[in-house]
Amino acid sequence: MKLIILSILVLCNFQVFAQDDAAKAERIAKVKSKILEHMDKKIAALQTAKSCISSAATREAFKACREPLKALRQEGKKNRQARKERRQNKQ
Predict the structure, then answer these.
(1) Is the CB of residue 65 less than 8 Å from the CB of residue 52?
(2) Is the pTM of this model over 0.85?
(3) pLDDT, tens digit, for every residue of 10-20?
(4) Which of 6, 16, 42, 88 is deepest in the core (most CB within 10 A)?
């Protein structure tokens, strides 16, 4: 009888661990998706800047090519600050 109860308890524990692993895998997939989306956005901005710079002939044209990259960096900075504030408010 004790063996049966012990077996049931062990199996229940494995079920809990399996559910935790599934939740972790789902969270990892979400984070991976966000990171890849951000990287694609960054790569597209860099490719646009590269083509702009290669076709620029004046100093003003070079400056104009930097503006989209600067805006992307500022957007990222705002996002990081917002996430930091949310984490600090949770604590």
Answers:
(1) yes
(2) no
(3) 655 655 555 66
(4) 42
